[in-house]
Amino acid sequence: MKDNALLLSRGLAAVPVLMLPMALGALWLALQPNAVSARALVIGGGVAVAWYLLAGLMVAQQVVQHIRIRRQLRRVRPVIAEQAGCAWIVDAQGAIRAQSPQAEQFLDMAGRDAAALLSRHRASPATAAQALLRRIGDGRPCNLPLQDGARLIAQRIPGTTLQLWRIEMPAPAPEPPAPAVSIPETGHGYRDLPIAILEFEPSGRMIEANPAAEALLGPVRPGSHLGNLVDGLGRPLEDWIAEVHEGRDNGRAEVLQTRGEVERDLQISLVSTADAQRMVAVLTDVSALKSLEAQFTQSQKMQAIGQLAGGIAHDFNNLLTAISGHCDLLMVQRDNADPDYADLHQISENANRAAALVRQLLAFSRKQTLTPEIIDLRDSLSDLSHLLNRLVGEKTVVTVTHDPELRPIRADARQLEQVLMNLVVNGRDAMADGGEITISTENVHLESGLTLNRVNIPKGEYVRITVSDQGSGISPEILDKIFDPFFTTKKQGEGTGLGLSTAYGIVKQTGGYIFCRSILGEGTKFTLYFPAQNPRQTAVAAPGPPPLADELPGEDRRTILLVEDEAPVRAFASRALRLHGYEVIEAESGERALEILDDAALAVDLFVTDVVMPGMDGPSWVREALRKREHTPVIFMSGYMETDLGSGSRAIPNAIFVAKPFSLSELAASVGGHLTAHPPRTEQAVPGPVV
Length: 691
Fold this sequence. Notes:
Pfam families: HATPase_c, HisKA, Response_reg
Shape: elongated
Keywords: Kinase, Membrane, Phosphoprotein, Transferase, Transmembrane, Transmembrane helix
Number of helices: 17
GO molecular function: phosphorelay sensor kinase activity
Mean pLDDT: 78
Strand order of the largest sheet: 1-3-2-6-5-4
Strand content: 15-25%
InterPro entries: CheY-like_superfamily, HATPase_C_sf, HATPase_dom, His_kinase_dom, HisK_dim/P_dom, HisK_dim/P_sf, Sig_transdc_His_kin-like_C, Sig_transdc_resp-reg_receiver
Radius of gyration: 40 Å
Catalytic activity: ATP + protein L-histidine = ADP + protein N-phospho-L-histidine
Largest sheet: 6 strands, antiparallel
Number of domains: 6
CATH superfamily of the largest domain: Histidine kinase-like ATPase, C-terminal domain
């Protein structure tokens, strides 16, 4: 048993501080003997006497308390000496005053705070220790469960203010009798423990590792350094070992990575032993926990990037609508022979290229507008294969095979073609000397679900598309990043890093799954799963593009209320509609639109409005307006996907959606077709009551 007799110094440490005022006052009087009057000296002397009486009282209290605890410790020495396991005597302030022989041999804790006993078992050991001290001080015993089935048994020692804390280990399960085998005793008995333990010198040189530790680290050679086994502390490992050995560490464990062939994340706790030349490291494999933590962090990062990409794409779509729209207005006024026509055509083409890049951003953030339909992949890939073979060049061949009973899927045909083109282009770039890219389709029935790359696919009927190449493959450290936006291994200027992230966004938005498997030197295989549709279902033919307003039958001028907060977009749309013979009323906000519609005599044939605007958004002001003009058709415009229209609210009747950026002809076609489908009514506005 070892007790601590130095705790009295905590109270005596205040004596030099209390003596400091007297020393300063004496020095001042020696230098300035006439600076203070006799009355001031008397008053100062009285204050000094009171001050030192207070100091003496504080020190006396500390001495009396220490003497009382020392007497109580002498009385309870037999109690702690009789403890068979690890036990400690703790005072009311939480200081460890004494410990049992076994506790002293395993880990010398005398003089430390009782919270150190809970550092490996509780997230906030100091708080837990204070709660235990209060409970036991009130006379209530404690039985606290710890890790590995151990329990902390604590109670107040009768007749004293001291507490007895001891750790009770679970009884080992009975084992069937086995032939007696003589195993020599080594070290401190660590080899038989199921816990991974390393024993090493304060210099970091290994002494011994038990089998559980070697199962995590591989063979550990005596004399090797701990730094050759683990890495990733972020500071010299020797500094951490020295802090623990000298008692300057707070007992916090660190997570490090192994240096062996198999990389693991290990939580390592270092402790000193009674032998000053030996230290112990306790290892816990936390690889699964770190993997989950990394997945959660990656999910948060991807979500944040997706939100950012969606917002940027929305703003860019407004700019591109204004650029391409005004370019169309200029091109309408010129013919091909005009010298400026070629420049305007270049502006229009580059605006379209920028719009394609924005669509990729929206695809990654899953906020693009999709037009899903029932697709027979055999027909789609048959048409696409000719384009793919021209795309990959002469040295590469694209081979397509199908399941003869292949079921249809529901997807946006154009976006699905974009996904396959991105995967084929990646395969082509991975085969510098050419080769074969194989696209195969087949029906798959999952009876109990499937887990791939930690993603669960529910049971059901699926169509599987596989795109494989014979390229150089992808290294494991890069494989987890291939779907990240802007991540690319190509040279600068050869790729945007959006190809695979775009494919991932399109597949997920369609309700499918995409996985990648790659082996260095053998090639890469992308596997896509889409829910299979009933083969008896037939695709509903998409309506053809509506006729342009110029092609509509002659009729009276129709009135359109145009609501758009972006002035350039509003200017282009209003000019385009007026060129096609419409009367246009402009409003920069939903509130302004409702003010205009307060005029019951104003007849409006169509609402054309942006979706996302400051104040009232498009769906909100339209619902308010339709209370009095319930049959008015509506066209919504937005750079986001169509399902953003009033999500969670009732559907708006007679409404269609136009995605930004749109051209002059697309806007005119949408307006003309919608007005043709909804001819004007005799009474549009509901007049107020007649007074």
